[in-house]
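Sat 14:20. Reprocessing the chain from the morning session after the first attempt stalled halfway. Input below, unchanged.
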Amino acid sequence: MTNKYKPQKSYGLNDPLLHTDHAAPKTRRDFLRQGFISGTGSVLGGSIFSLFANPQAAIAAVSSDLLGLADDIRPNEANASDVCKIGEVTGSKIPFICFDLAGGANIAGSNVIVGQGLGQENFLSTAGYSKMGLPGDIIPGLSDTTLAGTMRNASDGNFVNSQLGLKFHSDSAMLTGILEKFTSITPGLVDGAVIPARSDNDTSNNTHNPMYGIARAGAVGGVATLIGSRSSESGGNSMAPPMLIDPTLRPTKVDRPTDVTGMVDVGDLTAILSSPEDVTAVMESMARISHKKIKQSAPNINATKDEVIRDLIRCGYLKSTDIADRFAGREVNPDDRNATTPEIVSDNGGIFTEAEFDGEGEFRKTASVMKMVIDGHAGAGTIAMGGFDYHTGDRSTGEARDLRVGRCIGACLEYAAKRNTKLMIYVYSDGSVASNGILDNSPGGRGKGNWTGDNSSTACSYFLVFNPNGNITTFANTGLIDPRQIGSYSANGSVVTSATPAANNVNLLVNTVLANYMALNGDIANFATTFPNHGLGDFEKMVSFNPLA
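Finished this time. C-alpha cells:
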C-alpha cells in the first residue's frame, strides 16, 4: 500500500471542486455538483410532531360543521376534508427519503460491495476493484487476518461488513458514517440492495429522481406530499422521469426555518390570543363567515373559471383552520433543545450534538427533511448534497464527503428507530468516478486509490430498508440469485449493461426502485397498472424483499 506518488493537496469538506477538464459552472446544478453551493434543506419538524405516538395515524379535529361544507363546495364529493385535503393523513405508505449526490460519487466497491452475476460476493478481479479505488491488499474476499485492525469497521473476515444486511467494504467511509449515527442497529432490522446501472457523468439530465412515482404509488403527507431541498421540478439535482411528473405534486422547497413556519403560520393571532383553542375558534369563525358570503354570491358567479376560484377560496379557509387546529401555540423547530427528551439535537443522547447541528448545514438539512417525512407530514423527501465531483487527484477529499453523507443516512435510520417507523432510503448520483491505481497514503486517503476521472461504467445506486419489527425476507417470486444485488459487474469492474433493463437506462432504474417500493408496501400486484409503461418486462424478477410486516 505504499508508493512514491505524492497526491495534490486535498480539498476541505466544504471547498468547491475545480477541474481543468470541466467547463466553468454556469447553472445552479453545476455549482451544486462542484460544491460551490450546498443542496440546502430547511429546518422542519418540531415539538408538535412529537405529540403523536403514531404520527401517521393522527387526525385533526376541525369542527364537524366545517367538514360538512362538502355539499356546497363539491356536491358530488364525499366530504370537505377529502376535497380540500385537510387533516392528518391516515394509512400512508412507507416513508421514503432519497439522497441525490450531485457530481458523480463513488458508491461501488469502496463503499457498497459489488460482484459479478452471482451477487455481491461473486467478487471481481483485483484490477476491477482497483478501478473502484481499492488496492490489492484490501480487496473483498481476501483474508483480512493481518489488516482487520486497520479497517474502520468490523469485518466478516474478508474486508466485507454485513451489519446492514447489504454488504459494505469494512473500510467504507459511508458505512463508517452510517454506523456513527445509527446506534440502534440490530441484526434483521435493516437490509438493502445495490443496483449496478450506468448514468451520465456530471449532468442534471439524468432522470434519477423517483419522487413523483413514489407519490403515485401512494405516499402522502399531512402537510405536503413531496418536499425537496432544491427549487427544481424534482426537488433535487437530477431530473424526474417526464412521464411521472405531476405538476400538482411539485415538491415544496424547504431550505430555511421560515419556509416551515410559513407552512403552519396563523399570522398575528398567536400573538393576540394565548390559547391555541381560541386561535382555532377564530379561524373556524372566519371560515364560516367567508363560506356564507361566497354562498350568497353564488348566483352571480360564472360556473367555469370563477367556480374554481370560489372552491379554492373555501378550501383555503378550511386549510387555514386545520393548520391552526394542529399547530397554533406549538413551537415548530427541530432544534428543540428545551424538550423533555430532545431526539435530534442534544449533547446527551441526541442524533446530532449541538456543535454538529450548529456547524454543519448538511446536518440541519437532513434533520429537517427526515423529521418531516418520518413523522408523516410529507410522503417523501429529496436531500440534494453537492460536491461529489471529487476526482481531484487525491482520495481524502472524497472520503470526507462520503463520511458526511453516511452520517446523514445513519441519522435518518436512527430517527426512524426512535420513532418506531419503517423507512426506505435511496442513494444515487449522476455517474461515478474511477481510480488509476495510484494511492493516497495521507491520513485522510487511507492508502486507497486516488479518484482521477469520471467513469459511468462504475456507477450504481442502492437502497436501504428499515423495519422496526424486523423480519425483512426475500421476495417470494424474485429472480435474483442474490436479493441484495439487482444486476452485475464484469470482472474488470464495469456495469454489465445487458444484465437488467435498468443497467443502461435511468428511467428504468427509477422503475426498478418503484417496483421494490411497492413490494415493500405489499402493492406489487398493482405495479403494472400503476405504471403501465414500466418497461421492466417480468418486473417481479427484479424485486428484492417481501412486504414489511
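The CA atoms of residues 14 and 35 lie 7 Å apart.
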